[in-house]
Amino acid sequence: MVDRGRTQEPAWKPLFDAYVPVREWLARLAPDVAIVVYNDHTADFNFDKYPTFALGVAERYAIGDEGFGTRPLPEVVGDAELSTHLAEALVYEHEFDLTLCQELAVEHGFLVPMNLCFPHAGSGWPVKAIPLQVNVIHHPLPTARRCYRLGHALRAAVESYPGNSKVVVLGTGGMSHQLQGKRFGFMNEKFDQWFLDELERNPEGLAEIGHQQIMEEAGAEAVELIMWLTMRGVDHVRGSVGAVSGTACSRKCARRSASNLKGTKISTAAVGSPVMMTKPQPANITTHISNTRG
Question: What domains sit in the chain, N to C, each tagged with a CATH number?
Answer without folding.
Answer: 13-292 (3.40.830.10)
